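Ligand-bound model needed. magnesium ion.
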Amino acid sequence: MHILLVDLDDTIIDTVGFKKAVFQSVVEVTKLSLDEVTRLYLKSDPTQNEWYERFAAYVQSRVPSVTSKAIVDRIFQAIQNILVNTQVLSYIARFEGYKVLFTLGDAKIQEAKIQELDLKTRVDEVYITQTQKINILADHIRGHEFLWNNQTYDQVTIIDNNLAFLNLVHEQYPWITAIDPKSI
Ligand SMILES: [Mg+2]
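Prediction:
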């Protein structure tokens, strides 16, 4: 039995372009500099839940005439223009086995991306987590097998753009196939 764990951000979708679109939109509405908008984004701790609420609040505190709701709305609007990696999508389509979209990040924004791009229809399961992926793997691995939803898998393929994570997988679980989406 074969399972695929495929990442979302910068694996299936281009979040670099998405962030660029968000920053440009915020610059346009606030007249803040791109550097300042970028600084506020990083300050909002974007790997943590509801980062866009903190980001919008920071922007509003700098530019009180712009509501934080207007900023959040612009972020969600930018989701409509996200680009997808068609090579990764066709890899997923060809894959024979159980397919999990395995993503780390804020549940609401990840759900919005998945819905906008109709990705639920391309996988068997969507798994959104705030726990580091290597820890989730550790919880599901027994020897050279992977246990998921009461099913045992002896073959695991991971596609993820995070090279630090791929290296950890290679080191700790050399029997798992871990692929950088750039090589697909
Ligand atoms: Mg990623």
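The CA atoms of residues 27 and 33 lie 6 Å apart.
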